[in-house]
Every structure is written in structure tokens, then in C-alpha cells.
Design goal:
Strand order of the largest sheet: 9-18-17-16-12-15
Distance between the termini: 61 Å
Radius of gyration: 25 Å
Shape: elongated
Number of helices: 9
Structural class: alpha+beta
């Protein structure tokens, strides 16, 4: 009997929540076939079957959080397969683990239908108490899509299900709805709580004149070299972090030292359907502006489609959150523990300002919010840091000089 254990998917995790089983007892599985989804604080990862065989037991209930090393399910290996002992690690490497793939492995024939669906579709189905086997697929491949689930919800049959979670057609009898508090949402909450109850947060606010940067960006775009604002932000942040390394650091309380990181791995907070995900631009200081533009676009697209890999979610050294496209003007962001600081950029608006010659002018202004660990840095240092960043953005030719 082969034990499938929860293992570290590559981000130093110590525990995970069982989000969903992709098989049932009695199902025959092939080697490397995804069998269980596990939620961490950053992603949902699929763990594969280490051997071909028959599933004999699903040990841990869905929704339960367990430690790395816990046995999740048992598989009776087929005699034709090479035996794998319980002590051997799962064959697939962490780099090969794909987060939320868009299409699952084809079904194995059995008496019951093996439903093909993405993790997000399964999540929608779970939240509404829908058995995916009851949902007719519209895709010729047999894969059940999110649209299929929502269409099924509109049918009379879905309303008649006694155990359905959604509070539907009779608002007077059921005046509220419930959303399961688990998966990535629960893991985000856990990490936010850990950060807020561990780090004494202080948030510093600043405004930045974006006028010259936006003009430069338009020129580059007209020349066929589009560069995103995020790429400029990251490059300016790296220059500022090199000048103020205490913000590219973490506090090691056990050894009573502040660790100044020598790499610049910039986390980019990204809103997705499942919650806030932070893919990481690794070694951002070694990338050109064009490479940063491309890298951020790739990570953002993969985050939104659920195609991030474990390597994309390895720990960052500093995190930024550009919420401007959503329209905010200020926030008190929570630091991405165990980092020292997090900076958030808000919506750029045209405002009436007074220039150095006491003339009234219209400028494109942006607010930023920077939360920092007051155990590690003081307010004056934070002000100096944001002033350095703002100066580079307000005078982009200065930023370009820093890159030469």
C-alpha cells in the first residue's frame, strides 16, 4: 500500500489545507495523475499519484489543515508497476508542480464518471453544494466549465437539492448567504493575522508627481517600446532599497539580528478570483526595464488564469501592491510577513498644484502608502526612503542615470 503524504511544494510550507480530492475510493489512477488539491497561504497545488493503482482510502477530510508529512490517502499499487516504498518521496519535483492547471488529466474509465474541471470550477461547485457529476459538460472533451456550473445553478434541479449551500429563491426565509471560509481565503487570513499580531505596523503616506513619467511612457509607447508603470516602479524601488537596505530585510528575533537580503526578489500583489496572490519577480535588479515589463505581465496573466508554478511563489524580499487601477486613494497595507515593509500605489489623478514658481498648474498626482516594521526602521528612515523613490519617479531621467 502506497501512502501519499503532504510534502513541501517548494515554498518552505509547514502545513496545508485539503482543498479537494480529485479521486474517490475505488478509482484507478495512473502515475503522476493529480489526486488531491492542497491550499497553502499562496496557492492551491495538485499532488500527483506516485504510482499507478487503485485508491483505497481518503484519510484526511476536505477542509482540514495538516502538517507536512501527514498521510493523505492510500493507493494499492498495480502489480505491474515498480513498487515504491512509503518512505520514498513523491517522484514529481516541486518545480513540476503546477498551480491550478486549466485542464486536468484525462479520466480513467470506471463505473462512475471522473469529472474533468479546473480547481476554480470545483471551488465554485463546492461553494454552492453542487455535485460536479450532475453537471452536464458543454465542452466536447467532457470538461465541466464554470459556465456549466452556473447554468446548472439556474435550473430547478439545483434549487431542489436539500444540502445546497447557497440561499436562493426565498430571501424572506433565508435572508443571508454564507461563503465557506477555507482554502486560500483562510490561509490569507491566517498570514495577515500573524503579520499584524507580530509586527508593529506604521504606515507612511506620500504623494508623487507622475506627470513626467507618464509623458516618457507615452513617448516609449509611440516608439514601439511600451513599458508598464509597474516596471518603472520596480526599478525605482530597487535603487531606493539599495540606498536603504533596511527595507529589503527581515528580523531574526531568535538570533537577535536584522538580516539584510542581498537579492532583490520583488513580490507583486495581484488580485485574482481566489483572493490576493503574490507572484515574485526574482532577481529583479538583474532585469532590464523591458524584461521587467514582460516578466510582470507574464506573472499577472498566470496568476489570473491559475497557471502559476511553485517557483513563481517563492519568498520575496519586498512587496509592492499597485491598486491604482482599482481606484483607491490610500490604505494601511499589511506587511507580507516576515518582510520589513510593503508599499502600495494608488490611483493617479489630475490635480491642481502650485509649482516652485508659485504658479497654479495641473499635474498627474499619485498617493502611495508604505507600511513598515517599526522594530526595524523608524519613521524618518521611511520618509527618506519614499522621498528617494518619489524623486526617481518624478524625474525619470534621474532614474535612467541610475541604470547606466
Amino acid at each position: 500500500m502506497i501512502e501519499v503524504k503532504l510534502h513541501d511544494v517548494g515554498e518552505g510550507m509547514t502545513e496545508g489545507e485539503i482543498a479537494n480530492y480529485l479521486v474517490r475510493v475505488g478509482d484507478r489512477v495512473t502515475i503522476d495523475q493529480p489526486v488531491v488539491e492542497v491550499s497553502t497561504d499562496k496557492m492551491v497545488a495538485e499532488l500527483p499519484a506516485p504510482v499507478s493503482g487503485v485508491v483505497t482510502d481518503l484519510i484526511i477530510p476536505v477542509g482540514q489543515t495538516v502538517s507536512v508529512g501527514t498521510v493523505l490517502l492510500l493507493i494499492e499499487a498495480l502489480e505491474t508497476e515498480t513498487a515504491v516504498t512509503a518512505e520514498q518521496p513523491i517522484r514529481q519535483t516541486t518545480e513540476q508542480i503546477k498551480v491550478r492547471p486549466s485542464v486536468l488529466t484525462p479520466a480513467v474509465s470506471s463505473s462512475s464518471r471522473r469529472v474533468l474541471a479546473t480547481p476554480y470550477t470545483r471551488k465554485i461547485a463546492r461553494e454552492h453544494g453542487i455535485d460536479l457529476e450532475q453537471v452536464p459538460p458543454s465542452d466536447p472533451s467532457g470538461r465541466v466549465t464554470e459556465e456549466d456550473v452556473r447554468r446548472f445553478l439556474d435550473t430547478t434541479a439545483s434549487v431542489e437539492k436539500a444540502d445546497v449551500v447557497e440561499q436562493t429563491s426565498t430571501p424572506s426565509a433565508k435572508p443571508f448567504e454564507t461563503i465557506p471560509f477555507r482554502g486560500i481565503r483562510k490561509q490569507i487570513a491566517k498570514k495577515m493575522t500573524q503579520s499584524l499580531f507580530t509586527i508593529p505596523h506604521v504606515t507612511h503616506f506620500e504623494e508623487v508627481d507622475m506627470t513626467r513619467l507618464l509623458a516618457l511612457r507615452e513617448k516609449l509607447k509611440a516608439a514601439g517600446k511600451p513599458i508598464s508603470v509597474n516596471a518603472f516602479f520596480i526599478k525605482a524601488l530597487i535603487v531606493a532599497l539599495q540606498d536603504f537596505p533596511v527595507f529589503n530585510a527581515k528580523l531574526d528575533e531568535a538570533n537577535e539580528q536584522i538580516i539584510l537580503e542581498q537579492q532583490y526578489h520583488i513580490g507583486v500583489a495581484t488580485e485574482t478570483a481566489d483572493g490576493l496572490i503574490v507572484p515574485v519577480v526574482r532577481d529583479a535588479d538583474k532585469l532590464t526595464m523591458q524584461q521587467l515589463h514582460t516578466r510582470v505581465a507574464e506573472l499577472s496573466a498566470r496568476a489570473k488564469t491559475g497557471d502559476l508554478r511553485a517557483a513563481d511563489l517563492k519568498p520575496s524580499t519586498f512587496t509592492m501592491s499597485n491598486v491604482g487601477p482599482l481606484g483607491s486613494t490610500g490604505a494601511t497595507p499589511i506587511i507580507n510577513y516576515p518582510e520589513t515593509a510593503l508599499i502600495a500605489f494608488h490611483k493617479t489623478k489630475k490635480r491642481v498644484c502650485v509649482d516652485d514658481h508659485d504658479q497654479i498648474v495641473i499635474r498627474s498626482m499619485m498617493n502611495l502608502s508604505m507600511s513598515f516594521d517599526h522594530r526595524v526602521a523608524d519613521g524618518a528612515t521611511a520618509v527618506a526612503f519614499t522621498n528617494r523613490f518619489a524623486g526617481l519617479i518624478e524625474h525619470p531621467t534621474t532614474l535612467l542615470m541610475e541604470l547606466i
